[in-house]
Write the structure tokens for this entry.
Amino acid sequence: MLEAAAAPISESLIRQYDVSGPRYTSYPTADRFVEAFSSQDYIQALEQRRNGAAAMTLPLSLYVHIPFCESLCYYCACNKIITKHHDRAAAYLKYLSREIDLHVAHIGQGQAISQLHLGGGSPTFLSDAELRELMAVLRRSFSLTPGGEYSIEIDPRTIDASRLDVLAELGFNRLSFGVQDFDPAVQKAVHRVQPAEQVFALVDAARQRGFESVNVDLIYGLPEQTPESFDRTLAQIGQLRPDRIALYAYAHLPERFKPQRRISSVEIPTASAKVSMLSRSMASFMEAGYVYIGMDHFALPNDSLSIAKRQGRLHRNFQGYSTQPDCDLIGLGVSSIGRVGATYSQNAKTLEEYYDFLNQGQFPVVRGLGLSRDDLVRRAVIMALMCQGRLSFESIELAYLLNFKEYFAKELETLKSQVEQGLVELDGSGIKVTEKGWFFVRAVAMVFDCYLQSDRTRAKFSKIL
């Protein structure tokens, strides 16, 4: 098990790696998607799935994006629509139903679903009746397998114990609470005030109702945060003891995300303070018995994510770490991203454009990518490093019929500096990320990213610390 506290990090190393880089929820990353990839390309990928063996043997994963929120969180970089007009949800559900029908027409009725995630925005913006309507459409179109993972993101300000009863009734067995930070000053600074007592009561109610897993999202690097103030939040999380913890670094990109312009850059913690928060968080969680899954995820030992890591079945997709490697993901709703076969696709980002496509009976796909052989090879390398923290040269050579040391000669030469810094270990059989290297695993993966060739490209991403 990784012992985060045993990995001292120097200020010079922090300064060196205070750079921008991808989170690698996919490779190639979404900024490489092109508008030349159209709905027809997506249809071809769906048809190939239907005609291939995967359609009969591998279940699908579904992501449904609900973009609506009642209030604006200043840190948020999600695709969302701020509104108090709940009647807008009714129209959105009708168009979601149309998009689902299009998928059924191309992959067939009753495809097995083993993972479902409702994200946003705030999925709990939908009323109980609207959630029932959505789940009825999904169950009518797909087959939700027994024992699957069916999760929904929760804004604690929009839910109470009675609504938890409805979620359990609808088949959700996993909840993800957006906490970010319990400190009142931080909550005020990011315009998301929610008392800790409210979250504790909801998590307790969820456990009483038998939900299999409760996840809590935290963010470090927010305005007004200090390592000491975040320690208090960590202590409260230790008392709450969720099954999973997702710990994200705040990415301050006000030039891309308008809400973040309300946050002053001078209020944001330094890179050194952020690394301290990360180090303390990892030490706190692991002292409490959590398994370090990878870059931003922790889980209790008996959680399915921890079991998947022990069994070598971890993968990363557009929602982060997943228990299902090589599972096709269908994204439904505005701005959703999916993966089918060797393709990625993304839906229109505005309601108007999303509705217009569906009014014409077309998939609302506006961009995407068909992966090349080199993309597939590099994806396998990057995901192995991100998910397992180690890579066997032989496994890549057998899967892709290449000589690893020849194919990646330049990358292995570049990696030597990270070996000298103690971030990775490199020998004749493979690569291993060290304890200290886990702080910089994105930087290790970036060595194998052939698209990161200029500072202009890197500037599109968040800082890796």
Summary: The radius of gyration is 22 Å. Residues 87-107 form the longest helix (21 residues). The longest strand covers residues 142-154.
